[in-house]
Structure formats: C-alpha cells, structure tokens
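Structure, all two chains, one model.
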Amino acid sequence: MDKEKNHLQKDEEYEIDTLTNDRLIKGHDYDGIRELDNDLPPWWKWLFYITIAFAIIYSIRLFVFKAPDLIQNDEYQKEMASFNASNAVAKAGKTFEVKLLTDKASLAKGSEIWHKICAACHMADGGGLVGPNMTDKYWIHGNTPRDLYNVVTNGVIAKGMLSYKDQLSDKARMDVVSYILVKLQGTKPAHPKAPQGKKYE
Amino acid sequence: MSVERFTYDNKFTKLFMYATILWGFVGMLVGLTAAFDLIFPVLNAGIPWLTFSHIRPLHTNAVIFAFVGNGIFTAVYYATPRLLKTPMYSKTLGAIHFWGWQLIIVAAALTLPLGLTQSKEYAELIWPIDVAVVIIWVIFGINFFMTIVQRRMKHMYVAIWFWIATWITVAVLYIVNNLQLPTSLLHSYPIYAGVQDALVQWWYGHNAVAFFLTTPYLGVMYYFVPKAANRPIYSYKLSIIHFWALIFIYIWAGPHHLLYSALPDWVQALGVVFSIMLIAPSWGGMINGLLTLRGAWDKVRKDPVLKMFVVGVTAYGMSTFEGPMLALKSVNALSHFTDWTIAHVHIGTLGWNGMLTFGMVYWLVPRLFSTKLFSRSLANVHFWLATLGMLFFAIPLYFAGITQSLMWKQFTDAGYLAYPNFLETVTQILPMYAMRAFGGSLYFTGVILFVINIWKTVAAGKFVRYEEDQAPAREIDTHGAKENLQWGWHRKLEGKAVKFSVFAFIAILIGGAVEMIPMFMIKSNVPTIAAVKPYTPLELQGRDIYVSEGCYLCHSQMIRPFRSETERYGEYTKAGEGVYDFPFQYGSKRTGPDLAREGVQSLPNYKPDSWHYNHMLDPQKMNAESIMPPYPWLITRNIDIASTPAKIRAMIKLGVPYPKNYADKAVGDLKVQAHKIAENLRQSGIKVDDNKEIIALIAYLQRLGTDIYKDK
C-alpha cells in the first residue's frame, strides 16, 4: 500500500514520537495531549466491513426475501408444528389406565409433584388453605382414584382448581393422585382446613 | 500574537468530585442491599422502602445519574477549560448546575423508595423532577457551550466532541421519553402505550447506556488516559471514524431490548443489525485508549491509576462485544429476562464506569490538593478488590442466567415442561445470587478503601482553587487556512462548534426517527384486537399500584413466541393487547414468573383471589422457598379513590375510549367491583375491607391477559 499518499503532504506536518517511531501530527496539542497519525488498523477495518456486510445480508433476507427464520410468528408456527407431529407419533397407540399406584417410585414421584406444585394451595402437609384439606374424609368431587384424577386433569376452574392436563402427563397425574390417597389421607396436618363436601367412609 | 493570561477555577471540579464519591458510595451500598434482599426476601422487614422493588430503581438511578453523572461533570469541569484554554463560562451557572443536580438526586432518593415512579427503567423519576432535570441540563449546556464559544484553541479535541454529542443526545432522549400527562403533582401517565411506549423507552434506555455511560466516559478516557500516561493518542483518524460511526449507529440499537416481543419484525431486525455494526466503532474507542499506552506499559505495571484505566477500557471492549452478541436473536432467545443481562451491565458499569472514575479521581486529587496520594498500596489493593469483585459478581450470574433459561426451556420426553413450577428454577440459582452478593461486597470494600485514601490525601494537602495558564487569542479563521491533510475537511469542522453540533444532532436523530415514526403512523404495526377493552377504574387503580410497587422489576408481562413460553404462560403477547397500557409493563427481568396472562382461568398459572391475598401478604407461606418480598402494607393501605376521576380524564385525553363523562361514574363502578372481590374473599374466610389496595391489585391481576381469551 502506498502509505505516503494517505497522509501527507509535506514532512513538516509531522514530528516523530521517539518511543514508537510513529508520526505525531504537528499542531495537534491539547493541554499537552498530542495525536499520532496512525492509520486505522486493517483488522479493525475488516471487522467493520464484515459487520456491515452482515447487516446488509440480514436486511435483504428479511425485507426482500421475507426469510421465515427472521419472522417470529413463522418461527413459532414451525416450532409448534414440528412438536405436534412428533408428539402425535409418540402418543399413537398408547392407552392409559386410571388405577391407584402403590409402588415406591410412583409415590415418590407423586410426593415430588405435590410439594412442587400442589402445596402452593393445598399446603405441603395437605392441610389445605386456598384448596381443600386432603387428609380428611370429606370430598367435594368424590374419593375414587378416577374422581381425583378427573379433578386434577380438568380442574374446577371456576373454583380455583387448575387443569393439569397440559402440564402433567397422565402418569404424573396418577402419581400425585395416588400420593394423596395413599400417603396424605388420614395424616394429621398442622392447620387443617375445615371439611368441605361430603363425607366418604 | 499576544499571549493572554487567565485562571481556571477548580471549585466545581472539586465539588462534583466529592459528589461522585459520596453518591457512588451510597448508590453501591443500595445495590448491595438489593442483592441481599434477593437472597433474604424478608430482609425488607415489612418496610416498603427497604423492599427490592423499591430500592432497585434507587440503585440504578443513583449509580447512573448520581455517581456517573457527577463523574461526567467532574471531568467536564476540569478538562473543558484546559482543552479549550479558557475558564468555564460562568460560576453562577456552575453553582446552579451543581446544587440543582444534587437536589434532583435527593428528590429522587426521597421519591423512588416511596413508590413514586413512572416505572420506565432509568426514567422512573416523576414529572416534577423530570422538569428540574431538563432545566439543570440546559443550564449545564449553556455553561458548556458558552465555554466552547469563548475558547482560545482553534480546534476542539475529541473529548469535547464526545461531550457535545452527549449533551445533545441526552436532551433529546430525556424529553421524548418523558412526555407525559400529569394527573396530579406526583402522578402522570406517559403519552405512549404498549408496544409504542416500549419502543420509545428502550430507545431511551439503550441510549442512556450509550450517551450517559459511554460517550461522556469516552471523553473521560480521551483526556485522562493520555494525561496520566503522558503519551499521545494512538490515532487521530480512528478518533474521527469511531466517533461518527458510534453516535450514528448507537441510536438505532434500542430494539434489541425487545427481541421476540410484540415489536414488529422489521424494527427488531434494525435493532439486530445496528447492534452488530456497533462492534467496530466501540472497539475503535478501546483500541485508541489501549494503544495510547504503547511505550508506557512499564508505567502501567506500577501505577494504580493506569492499571484501573486498562481494566476499565478492557471491560468496555468486553461488554461492547458481548452486547452485540446478546442482540443476536438466537442468543437473545436464551439470555433475555435472565441474570445474563445483569452480569452484562455490571461488566460495563463496575468495569468501565467504575474503574475510569476511580482512576480519574486518584489522578485528580493529588493535583487538586498539591500533594501525593496518601497510599499507593491502598490504591493497589482497591484495584484488586474491584477487579476480583467484578469477576465474582459477573461470572456466577452468567451461570445463573444460562442455567435458569435452559430450565425454562427444558421439556420432558413426553412433551411436558420439565420444570413446570417456576420457583424451582429460582431456587436452583440462589447460590449464584449469594456469590454475586459476595462479589459486590468485595467491590464495595474496595470503594471504602478508596474513600479513606481520598479522605487522607485531601486532609494532607491544600486545595489549589485557582490555576494560572496562558495562551494566544484564537485566530479567527477567514478562509480555510492550510488544512490540507487527508482529513482536512474534518479538521475544519473541529474549528466550527455550531456546525459540528448540528451534524452530531442530525446523526443522532436519524435512527430514532426511522424506527419510531412508522411505529406511530402506520397502523399495521400495532394491529387492533377488537376484544381488547379499557381497564375498569378499579383495575386501573390496581395497575397503578402494580407500577408503584415496582412489580415489573421481577415480573415480565411479555410472553415470547416460543413453545416453552406458550406452554407455561399461554398465548404469546400481541402488540394490539397493550393499547391501553400507559405505561407498558413488559419488564426486563424474570425473577418471578411472567404475569401477562395471570388472570386467565384456563391457564396453568391461574390463582384464585384468596391465593393472591395470602401470597401478597406472605409469599413464603404459600411457597416456603419463594424469594418474592412480602407486601403486607397492601392489606392495610386504602385505595386512593379520589384520584380516579382525574385518572380517567387523563386516559380519555390519551385516546382511551371510555364513554363520555365516564369520569363521573368511575368511582361508583370502582366501588361495586371492589365490593364483589372483597365479598368473595370474605366468603373464603378472609377479613378485608372493600377499599384496600390489595383489592384493586387483585382486580388488575385477574384482568391480566384475559381479553383475547374471552371467546376461547
């Protein structure tokens, strides 16, 4: 590169900085601060050019070609479609049986879900607060595994009990229902909520 | 040519410097309190102004406008006269500027913890204080620009360019973002709503970083680094290119705070591409700072001032690379709403702003007091505490952010969210929060040493109020002289302050205008949704309580278009849903779950009224591990019912379609709705009166996100 052309014109415009041998620009002296006449570092220039190229290509892809990976609703629809397709395959042919589970693993899983999700309203010990007491023999919607499973699956929206069918798998719902019936029933919570519903023996 | 003699007055430099130190100390102490609040939510002891959501805005405003703000003025009042060879224009204006600014800070410190806020980040101050800020900023501007007018130097140095750009841009940003309609002395609504408000706010918020934390501190760098190292600036050309590129490009990048939000794709894209193009201009500043030290590296090893400058400028380089990376949609999909962002800003603030300020003060004090620094080794210890503190702060938060985000997005094989309970993703990262508080404590210990060191130095020295200098009068340029270098045209511009300022003004206007004008003028950018209706008066009051309590500092209201979000929170947020949201409440950080659809009964997060009541009173009762602070005062405080008609009238003025004369009926409607909710609570055994704030807040929470679900 012809460095001389870039600067210039007469050598008397410059002095030499003794520590670096770079050229100081004459007349540039602000409260003792001098300025060197160094060029832009080439790598820096290239960095700038590359980012500008990126910007141009990105913009063309969006504004001219409407690239679907830059349009967020398209991206979302694609994500959902690919999930739904694979989910349909996974679910096909599988039936689920509603039946009380008493094995250790299921009850442990049920306990975990209870403490993480349900305790917020029913309290960890099942004594109830916003939701009803789970330790007594009174039930609003019945006491069979199927009754409980239906409540947890579909919720009682108007009363503040949520539907968990999109949040917990069939099996997970059965785990937590079993946990209620096997582990919580008959225990003595710290602050039991007054009975609600009918008594079931 | 005759040489003229004149004197610099160091008084305001000294005062601004003291203020910098004082507010830095206070602001960081408040930040540390906030960090501990997050680990121990009950630390607030039931006191509103100790609660995280009240002191977080205090912290950000204090460190930005009080600490860095006074730091800027320290540098400007010291360097401008010396660079232009003339004293500052007016001592009276200097005094008004100094005391006015400090009064504003005190007013902020009194109002923010009380919940008097607009809720727009870094623009929280209520309207009377905003007016004061504008007045004082203009006073500062007059003092600064008149000094330029009176200069003896023909040309303006690059530090001055950056301060000119700062002054102009901050004025524009502050005014545009703070346009608001007062409903009382202490309350107002912004004139923008929803996604438009969000765009204006983040155009402001991003450029507060750019033009309050960055450009003025580049001015600091350009003056104090070469002075302290006694070395020439590496490249004059680089100064020119990176200055213009930086100020022109920066202003466009705001939308990167709103990626994957209700903002239209085209605006998001502009935010992405301009952020990427910012890398080189930002690094231009870093290179020019670091390479100025060529030939002085032996000094750097020994001198704490230079060491701080090196770490500061390096931190600048790091965060200006990280920033553009966070602006890539794929990275942002992971990082947004997490602690990653918090780590990112603290590399910038603790590193760049903090280190540069400390270095500047360590350099200035011995000169202002004609003595030596009390202890060099103490300053060295400060340097190490600050450096380590910064790392211990940021690294755990990077881990925290990434961990939590991955947990939010994780699905089980069966296609369910792996962590349906949001709180689980919070307890997972609490140890990281503790580490952050430790890092912050290290950094703060360094600040204590700094204060002691400065104190002792000041005590040992004697203040040099006046300094003599001399320079020839400015030669008034009749025609173009011999500016025949390659960059001669720019050299000429440096001698023309007015022209220079006008060019800078144009450069910073373009980006904002291109993004904002279509957002307001073209309807398709905010498609109307017929089901979206104005808030009821009670919900409106509840919303104002939500704003005032600062819930948006922990809760977003912006569901992003990802399956992991729509499964957790429901349908993603649409632009048309926010048209009555004055101000918008998208939030920028999810310490708690998103609340955009909290009221939708068919969604997994729905909670009955009684749950909300118990939860606001004592979140730890509902979830022992919750880090949400208790808000017991909501149960005892009364709704400010009398303010309702004024608020409705303001809403009508802003274009919200309430029926004519609705302001007169609003209170009646409010009472009916409040009674219904309170009655419902009483039925589930809760003793509560109709007129308590909690009732309005519940009304608002139960309304959230429901409009577009009505017919589903």
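Residues 537-709 of chain B form a domain with the Cytochrome Bc1 Complex; Chain D, domain 2 fold (CATH 1.10.760.10).
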